Amino acid sequence: MTEILQAVRGMNDVLPEQSSAWQQLERVARETLAQYGYREIRLPLLERTELFKRSIGEFTDIVEKEMYTFEDRGGDSLTLRPEATAGIVRAAISNGLLHNQRQKVWCMGPMFRYERPQKGRYRQFHQIDAEALGFPGPDVDAELILMTARMWRRLGLRGLRLNLNSLGTAESRAVYRARLVDYFRAHASVLDADSARRLDGNPLRILDSKNPAMAEVVAGAPSITDHLDPESAEHFATLQAQLSAAGVEFVVNPRLVRGLDYYSRTVFEWVTTDLGSQDAVCSGGRYDGLVAQLGGEPAPAIGWALGEERIVELMRLQGLVGNEGRPDVYLVLAGAAADAVGLGLAERLRDAGRGLRVETNCGGGSFKSQLKRADKSGARYAVIVGDDEVAKRVAAVKSLRGEGEQREIAFDDLAVELSRALEPETA
Ligand code: ATP
Ligand code: MG
């Protein structure tokens, strides 16, 4: 027997049964991003490896052990993008998008990280990503966060909490970093192997440690909040005031440091208690130094990325998945006369009004099996046409969600009647 090939570990198929939630999320995101003036940018999945080394940082988990890197046939080292910000900044610089201009952009698509696959953590996963390039904030910081809050509201998501912190500038962070290293050196005996390794390369990441044995030493560490330069402190205070004024609740979490090197000032993370240990659904931060670091004219910037798999799972758990991408109507055709008018009738329904979604029963079958398919299609109504109906030029319209009686509607009125019946759902 021929062996059946499986997908690569940590890389998922999104099956038709599951795609409604994805479409719903992506539609809400597209609409919300447009409401705030963000425009789509589409970029290659492959970049030169150097881009990620120079932006994300050599001592981060991503660059140290998570990248899919290979040599192409011409001998160049390429990497499947593990995140979107570096590529967006690269594109903005190399296309001159920041010459006397600012940009508000978004993109969505797959990211690749060689992580240990588990629930909510995959090797190919998907992000929706928004970036504001050339904006010093804190107004744009607040607005980027308001935009995420609006998406959660529109999706109906409950129980998301916002963690907020400021990392200061590169200079103030360097001072803090030195104090942190001194502190952890003085407690070297309690550091686990991971943390000991991070002490030189990326000591702030030790604050992120989830090891209970280290909880006490982490809790006693100096706080970054006490080491902010005056401008960063002011920036952070204004951001908090603007969020409060807009009614967005948040918690200031001085241990929130984020895993990437390029952040400065504002960092934030939306978390949930519904997903176990993979609790971050959206995270972001300011990266005022990155554009210059990658060879552009200095330009302040900030962005966020949300994890689609985690949001989709939350939508499913909270019962928020609608009928996106499913037909409105399933057309049941019983008999030769019905078959003869079926395709034409379906076309008329698709032409009308907003353009109904009509799945025609193709390939015949008994009345009973066609009704079963109608149910399975997820359509809200079955429109049933038999030879008697053709003679009378009417169709029987049956709700597939148990509401109302079966009704007879003339062919000529079908489009209008169905559009009206479907209205509440599509408003
Ligand atoms: P985590 O702490 O969970 O590893 P992260 O800080 O590495 O997250 P970011 O690089 O900021 O995550 O990516 C933004 C979002 O993308 C995360 O909040 C999360 O929702 C999602 N995400 C990150 N890595 C993965 C993954 N391997 N699989 C699925 N989703 C992911
Ligand atoms: Mg990670």
Keyphrases for this structure?
427 residues, alpha+beta, BirA Bifunctional Protein, domain 2, Rossmann fold, eight-stranded mixed sheet, five-stranded mixed sheet, 15 helices, binds adenosine-5'-triphosphate, binds magnesium ion
Quick take:
The chain has 427 residues and is of the alpha+beta class.
- Taking the alpha carbons of the first and last residues, their distance comes to 51 Å
The share of residues in extended strands comes to 15-25%
- The CATH architecture designation of the largest domain is 2-Layer Sandwich
Mean pLDDT: 93
Q: Strands of the biggest beta sheet: in what spatial order?
A: 1-5-6-11-10-9-7-8
CATH superfamily placement of the largest domain = Bira Bifunctional Protein, Domain 2
Count of alpha/pi helices: 15
- Unreliable stretches (pLDDT < 50, length at least 5) are none
Ligands bound here?
adenosine-5'-triphosphate, magnesium ion
Query: What about the largest sheet?
Result: 8 strands, mixed
Percent range for helical residues?
25-40%
Number of domains: 2
Using the coordinates above, name the CATH class of the largest domain: Alpha Beta
**Global geometry:** elongated
Query: How many strands in all?
Result: 16
CATH-defined topology of the largest domain: BirA Bifunctional Protein, domain 2
Compute the CA-based radius of gyration: 27 Å
- The structure class reads alpha+beta
